[in-house]
Specification:
The protein is α+β, with helices and mostly antiparallel strands and 451 residues long. It has helices at 2-10, 22-33, 36-49, 51-59, 61-72, 80-88, 368-375, 381-424, 426-450, and strands at 97-98, 103-104, 117-119, 131-133, 137-138, 144-145, 149-154, 159-163, 168-172, 180-183, 187-190, 194-197, 202-205, 213-216, 220-223, 226-229, 253-256, 259-262, 277-282, 285-290, 313-315, 321-323, 338-343, 346-351, 355-358, 361-364. Among the domains are: 1-92, no CATH class; 265-324, Ribbon (Hormone Receptor, Insulin-like Growth Factor Receptor 1, Chain A domain 2); 327-366, Laminin, CATH 2.10.25.10. Helix 1 crosses helix 3, helix 3 (36-49) crosses helix 4 and helix 5 packs across helix 6. It comes from Ridgeia piscesae.
Length: 451
């Protein structure tokens, strides 16, 4: 219904009127404002933009027309939503109400859920009317603050809650660290400043710094008055800085009689690395590095740790994979004008100077003479066509030129005929002019044919 009002009624408020004689426009607008023409324009606009609404208007066309001519025409603020959806087809409820009987939402229809939540089924014939509270609020009417939030303001109609400071544990009663009821782990409650951040080593503290710890955090141990870090192999707490007192070992370490020891993943039955990599162990971990390009699998870096040699390489006397020089092998690059060039693990056949590879053979490159011969060939079909086109254009131009000359000559004979008539008489002048023109025309025609 909002679309009907905003897109339709408002957009056609002064349709086809836009200034000039204001009094005349107002008279005309009065007849247009509540006309059937305007109603059709509104429905057309809705049909273009909102198919669902357009379908509903079409289904209840008679009710829409009744509202337009009997309600809106009498009172411009007549509510279409109230008339159509609530009072007649009964698919909606007024705001702040819900259900088949349009009952009031929790907290009342004016400010349901105290404006701190959403009423289930608000404005519809469905729902329960119960409140779904916004973040930070709870209660049947969403008028109470959740734990971790405090009341900024509260009265009979309104409640405002804000989040406690990050250092607070178990709630707060005012803004900032001073308002905390208790401090979270890693923070210490002080009289002047409220919760103060402890050193990372402290679970609880009296002030900043590892020497001010009351209790140590996980992975730290108390050495006199200072909390120190456990060994890197420890997953939880310890009693000193050695791996022997770790309560539990991290991944990559294994628990033995002497404490947490590094687990060598590289010695496991199945290597954690891919077939073209080798494993390098480290404290509590490992990494994979790529084998040498000569190796088909390896146990370490270099060509002397290959499991096998790749094609193009062979095992030498030092048990290292070395390149095979295929160019020393008979029959390699044996084609005419070919030269063998060796490369690591492979080779290629190059053509001699002045030749290039074509269809697997070295063929002689084209010389300048060959290029000149190809350039002296008769013009292609496309260039021949261009030549014919140019010739045709020239012929047309000559034709136009001849026509203009003929017209000019005819005009000249007419002028000469007028002059002769004054001196030798009309009949004689006409006869002479005719035969002269006929002779000229015949000669001119023969010339144009030759061209």
């Amino acid at each position: 219904m909002n679309q009907f009002h905003m897109q339709g009624v408002k957009s056609t408020a002064k349709s086809n009127f836009g200034g000039g004689n204001t009094a005349w426009e107002e008279r005309k607008l009065n007849s247009y404002a509540f006309s059937e023409t305007r109603l059709v324009e509104i429905v057309d606009k809705i049909s273009e933009d909102e198919k669902e609404l357009a379908h509903m208007i079409e289904e209840h066309e008679e009710l829409i027309e009744h509202w337009w001519f009997k309600e809106y025409a009498v009172k411009e603020d007549a509510d279409l939503l109230q008339f159509l959806c609530i009072d007649n087809i009964k698919v909606c409820c007024p705001n702040g109400t819900f259900g088949s009987d349009c009952s009031d939402c929790a907290g009342g229809r004016v400010r349901p859920c105290k404006d701190n939540g959403d009423c289930s089924g608000d404005g519809t014939r469905t729902g329960t009317g119960k409140c779904s509270c916004n973040i930070g609020y709870h209660g049947e009417l969403c008028d109470e603050c959740k734990e971790g939030y405090y009341e900024v303001e509260k009265n009979s109609t309104h409640t405002e809650c804000k989040e406690c400071d990050e250092s607070c544990d178990k709630g707060c009663d005012e803004e900032g660290r001073k308002g905390c009821h208790e401090c979270k782990k890693g923070w210490n409650m002080t009289e002047d400043d409220g919760c103060v951040a402890c050193d990372e080593a402290c679970d609880k503290c009296t002030a900043g710094g590892p020497e001010k710890c009351v209790d140590c955090s996980d992975l730290f141990y108390k050495d006199g008055t200072i909390c120190k870090a456990c060994h890197e192999s420890c997953k939880k707490s310890c009693s000193d800085g050695t791996p022997a007192t770790c309560e539990e070992c991290k991944d990559g370490w294994t628990h033995t009689e002497t404490g947490c020891q590094d687990l060598n993943e590289c010695e496991s039955d199945k290597s954690p690395c891919s077939s073209d990599e080798y494993c390098i162990n480290s404290e509590g971990s490992y990494k994979c590095s790529t084998c040498h390009s000569a190796c088909d699998g390896c146990t370490g870096a270099g060509t002397d740790n290959c499991n096998r040699c790749k094609p193009g390489y062979k095992l030498d006397d030092t048990n290292s994979c070395t390149d095979i020089d295929e160019c020393d092998t008979q029959g390699v690059c044996a084609g005419e004008k070919q030269t063998c060039v060796n490369s690591p693990g492979s080779y290629k056949c190059n053509c001699d100077k002045g030749y290039k590879l074509k269809d697997g053979k070295c063929m002689k490159k084209e010389t300048k003479k060959t290029v000149k011969k190809s350039a002296s060939k008769p013009p292609s079909t496309s260039s021949s066509s261009k030549h014919k086109l140019k010739k045709k254009i020239k012929k047309k131009r000559r034709g136009r030129s001849g026509a203009w000359e003929l017209l000019g000559s005819l005009l000249g004979f007419c002028v000469a005929g007028v002059i002769l008539r004054r001196h030798i008489g009309a009949l004689v002048a006409t006869s002479i002019g005719f035969w002269c023109y006929l002779y000229w025309f015949t000669q001119r025609f023969e010339m144009m044919k030759k061209k």
